[in-house]
Amino acid sequence: MTQAAIDEFLQSRRARKLSAETVQWYKQRLRPFATFNPELPEEPGPIETFLAMRHGEPETIHADFRALRAIFTFRTERYGVPNPMATVKPPRCPKKVMATLEPEEHLRLLTAAGSDVRTKAIVTLLTDTGIRTSEAVGLRRQDIKTRTLVVRGKSGQHEVAMSEETRRLLLTLTNDSKDEYVFHGRKGVLTRYGMYKILRQLYEKAGIPGPKLGGHRLRHAFGKAWVANGGDLRSLQLQMGHENISTTEKYCSLNMNDTIAKHGRFTPLRSTYAAQQVFLDTNVVVNALEEEIPVGRNERRADDTCVQTDCHPGVRCSR
Questions:
Q1: Going by CATH, does the domain composed of 103-257 fall within 1.10.3980.10?
Q2: Full-prediction pTM beyond 0.85?
Q3: What is the DSSP letter of 252?
Q4: Around 40, how many Cα atoms within 13 Å sit in the side-chain half-sphere?
Q5: For the structural domain made of 2-87, what CATH number should be given?
Q6: Are 203 and 213 in contact (CB under 8 A)?
């Protein structure tokens, strides 16, 4: 049974002490597969059929593929059975430019937050530190240090730097908190979905269109700004909690400052306009000269009448 295989796989992930978010991700990705294939396939055909009928963004289909690859690899390693995913090629996942924010959009978000301390603290925290929303909702009073925060991410705990403005807002919230957590909703500790709803409403209030109206857009904007402002990748990796530097390197492609500067120097449009200006300037000079130079010998008027003084007036000249 497919569901039994999935349950065993999820239990192995829990045994490895993977985060609850990661286990839930696998569960959500594999649930439709169990519905589509009640019996666990032993051949690649049913797997490819499932992937072919899935709808959604290419990133979503690719996530399904990765989850399936993980469970079938697990079964091969544990039971020595053939892996039907071995010959299944991953779905195409075209590159996309990550949605980020411009500095003036950050300002609009903060302005839209108004006097609401919780909302302002959320925007300031994510803008200043680049942490994930799952890390933000888990913040506790004891995690707030003098210049750093202790956050719990995908790879465990790590420390991130923060500004004094962020620290003051977080401490203001903890002063009114009835427990150790910083952020609260109506029914207790604020959840990831609750924070997403707050941010989505704020984006709409600030007039910032989609796609991506959650905390990850602020996280991507943080990484982009860090590189654009001259920050190094190793420090950014530590700040964002990436296990692999290759994940951090994607933010280099978002920094267009150098490309924009070089484009301004080397675009063919610049030389085209320069050539056009030279052409126009040349015409101006020629026109000016034609206006200033007296009509010379052997030149004719428009009526083709000779203008030389040694010819008879009104007689067409043959010269």
A1: no
A2: no
A3: G
A4: 19
A5: 1.10.150.130
A6: yes
Cα–Cα nearest to 170, from 229, 122, 216, 126: 122
CB 216 within 8 A of CB 206: no
In the chain, CATH 1.10.443.10 sits at 103-257
CB 261 within 8 A of CB 270: no
| Strand (E) or helix (H) holding 95 | none
Q: Give the containing element (helix H, strand E) for 164.
A: helix 164-175
- C-alpha distances out from residue 67 to 10, 52, 62, 75, Å: 11, 15, 9, 13
157 bridge partner residues: 152
State how far the Cα of 30 lies from the Cα of 284, in Å rounded to an integer: 73
Express each pLDDT in 281-317 by its tens digit: 666 666 666 665 554 444 444 444 444 444 444 444 5
User: Using one digit for the tens of pLDDT, what is the confidence trace for 178-231?
Assistant: 899 999 998 899 999 999 999 999 999 999 988 788 999 999 999 999 998 889
CA 173, distance to chain mean position in Å, is: 30
Please provide the distance, in angstroms rounded to a whole number, between the alpha carbons at the two ends of the chain: 107
Cβ neighbours around 252 below 10 Å, total: 13
Cα–Cα distance for residue pair 123/217, rounded to 1 Å: 11
**Spatial contact of 223 and 236, defined as CB atoms under 8 Å apart:** yes
**Exposed / middle / buried, residue 182 (Cβ in 10 Å: 0-12, 13-18, 19+):** buried
Closest CA to 123 of 170, 157, 77: 170
Q: Which of these, 213, 227, 220, 234, lies nearest to 255 by C-alpha position? A: 227
Q: Contact 295/307 with Cβ under 8 angstroms?
A: yes
Q: Which of 5, 57, 56 is nearest to 31 (CA)?
A: 5
Question: 140 has which bridge partners?
Answer: 181
Check the CA dihedral 295-298-304-310 and report its sign: positive
The pair of structure tokens assigned to 242 is 């990436």
